[in-house]
Write a structure and sequence with these properties.
single chain, alpha+beta, three-stranded antiparallel beta sheet, two-stranded antiparallel ribbon
Length: 223
């Protein structure tokens, strides 16, 4: 029992150490290459917003030198707010913090790198599964945030507007982090279900571990 407890503590320590190191490495990587990552999504965001809102004309959507996603949108809708001011029929110019896009990949790939019991081949499969899921989380984030900001002066009168505002509230209060953890679990579970581990019962303790780590079975999955 004592040896088992020590091994468990060692595994936990290694997991958190790998998690911290991965987080530091990815943070440094995004500090250097982050703007390129953001720009990859901008055409997708622009297309998605115009599909969701046919009364919008996106004139500009770009990343400035302060890592802010700037947008200039013409609203083809005219109305009057509660104070009698005319809304729509004009251009809306504003920006949001671009670094928000770093949250999901930082959490996702820090956990995938640190997750115990995954061989190199399994980590590669998990990475491939996680990429479309990550793109999906980004597409339900920034575009909805931009739409919500543009629609603010109009107020929330429809059910879809209330849902959009509530979703935006969730994202900005821990929702992004929660979504990233969900993607982590889905990616790992998918690999485990589609490619189950084939550890034979008759494998020797000194034989190479079938997970592909290069260690002996007794020092890896056989602990």
């Amino acid at each position: 029992m004592e040896n088992s407890s020590k091994r468990s503590k060692t595994h936990i320590f290694r997991f958190f150490l790998r998690l911290i190191l991965a987080g530091l490495f990815l943070s440094s990587l995004f500090y250097i290459l982050g703007p390129y990552y953001i720009r990859l999504f901008l055409p997708l965001f622009s297309c998605e917003i115009e599909i969701l809102r046919s009364d919008y004309n996106i004139k500009e959507l770009y990343l400035n030198d302060k890592n802010q996603i700037m947008y200039q949108v013409e609203v083809f809708r005219v109305g009057v707010d509660d104070k009698g001011r005319t809304l729509g029929g004009s251009e809306v110019k504003a920006g949001i913090v671009g670094r928000t896009l770093y949250i999901s990949p930082l959490i996702l790939y820090s956990f995938l790198f640190a997750w115990p019991g995954l061989s190199i081949k399994e980590r590669l499969k998990v990475f491939l599964i996680s990429v479309p899921l990550l793109i999906g989380t980004q597409l339900i984030d920034i575009p909805f945030d931009i739409i919500n900001r543009i629609e603010k002066p109009w107020g929330v009168h429809s059910m879809s507007g209330q849902i959009r505002e509530f979703w935006n509230y969730l994202l900005n209060n821990g929702g992004r982090q929660f979504l990233a953890l969900i993607v982590v679990l889905i990616s790992i579970a998918s690999v485990r279900l589609i490619f189950p581990s084939n550890i034979k019962a008759d494998i020797g303790r000194n034989d190479p571990c079938p997970c592909g780590s290069g260690k002996k079975f007794k020092n890896c999955c056989g602990k």
